[in-house]
């Protein structure tokens, strides 16, 4: 079976260097460094780490058209046991309050449940970035129950409350499966007031435009998902699509790349710089390399040269205050209301 | 191919202000105020603008307010319905003038 991953189709953009060069070649009105400096951040620096984000690998049961990870069923990269152990040890000897588990579909990792248990045993808030459809696979039907048992926050991707837009981005039949998964999470108490089980949804625009205002969309989504499908959730996070991997390919194929980048630059919001997630996140790749965010990870922009480069060398103190490595893609997190793994930032 | 409309010209809109900067500034302030949330939401205003853009057949406005409507959270279905509203009013406007035609026919006929 052929999948649309850049890696599988031998697309030049499978190479992170080609992606960086493509973005660097675009004539933009200003650099991100200049924009951040004008907002009082010259250079942009990290604060203390409050989120440790583990990217368990590129394997996924889906192959979404906008995926910045270029994840898919044909990808083989998964976090090695040594990196899992080192990252958990790093978490346990730190006071980082949140463990954010992502992928790919992170639940496909053989040690996913072990990671969750260790994170919770260490008293940390644990988040699972879940594509919903993974819970519909026969071997993963008990996953929602496991997540509920360990009080894991579920952050689930769903680009639209309408089937056509969702399937256009994520594949045929994904919407129907996603609704069935949400029903199961609701049965367990997820997304139900008073349960304490958080079910938050993430929406990325289905195309070359910026997300709508988060609070307004959240009200629409709650009404429509309740009315049409009888499902509920806690918060809706809007995330701007990043010009990386398959979304970059989409922008190029559709002739939208320059206009989209111009839009991001024009929509630069100085107020969004302060809350940029890279300032409080440490992103760990499947091979143990360290990054300021998951987007930098995918275009292989490692942590600043004077900071530790792998989880094996890292201490929280040695990473605090590090210079954040930036590029043109960073305008994606400062456009409009700002964007992060936790939605709008302003 | 030479055409009267060029998509990059939308980006040059502000050049209209070169010969009459005060008028341009007044227009810009009024225009921006019009599209701010008021009794109508920004999304509703963008949908109205999209419909009007089709009624006045302004390709620049259609591009601008298609993007704006998507970024305000409208769905393609809602946007298509807005265009049908514009089209229905245009069609109805033609048809209702048929009453004037009938009045004239009545006046001239035995």
Give the SSE layout:
The complex is a heterodimer of chains A (346) and B (110).
Chain A: H1 16-24, H2 32-38, E1 51-55, H3 81-92, E2 98-102, H4 112-121, E3 125-130, H5 143-149, E4 153-157, H6 163-170, H7 174-187, E5 199-203, H8 214-229, E6 236-238, H9 245-253, H10 257-266, E7 281-284, E8 290-291, H11 294-298, H12 316-319, H13 331-334
Parallel strand pairs in A: 1-2, 1-7, 2-3, 3-4, 4-5, 5-6
Antiparallel strand pairs in A: 7-8
Chain B: H1 21-34, H2 42-55, H3 59-71, H4 76-96, H5 98-108
Question: What are its keywords?
Answer:
heterodimer, A: 346 residues, alpha/beta, 10% strand, B: mainly alpha, extended
Distance between the termini of chain B: 55 Å
Q: What is the average per-residue confidence, as pLDDT of chain B, rounded to a whole number?
A: 95
> In sequence order, what are the helices and strands of chain B, one letter per element?
HHHHH
Question: What oligomeric state is this?
Answer: heterodimer
Which residue ranges of chain B are poorly predicted, with pLDDT under 50 across at least 5 consecutive positions?
Answer: none
Structural class computed from helices and strand pairing of chain B: mainly alpha
- Strands of the biggest beta sheet of chain A: in what spatial order? 6-5-4-3-2-1-7-8
The total number of structural domains of chain B is 1
Please provide the count of β strands of chain B.
0
User: Going by CATH, what is the homologous superfamily of chain B?
Assistant: AhpD-like
Strand content of chain B: under 5%
Class based on secondary structure composition and strand pairing of chain A: alpha/beta
How many domains of chain A? The number is: 1
Write a structural description.
The complex is a heterodimer of chains A (346) and B (110). With 346 residues, chain A is an alpha/beta fold. Chain A has one domain: TIM Barrel (Alpha-Beta Barrel). Chain A has 13 helices and eight strands. The mean pLDDT of chain A is 96. With 110 residues, chain B is mostly helical. Chain B has one domain: AhpD-like, CATH 1.20.1290. The radius of gyration of chain B is 19 Å and the shape is extended.
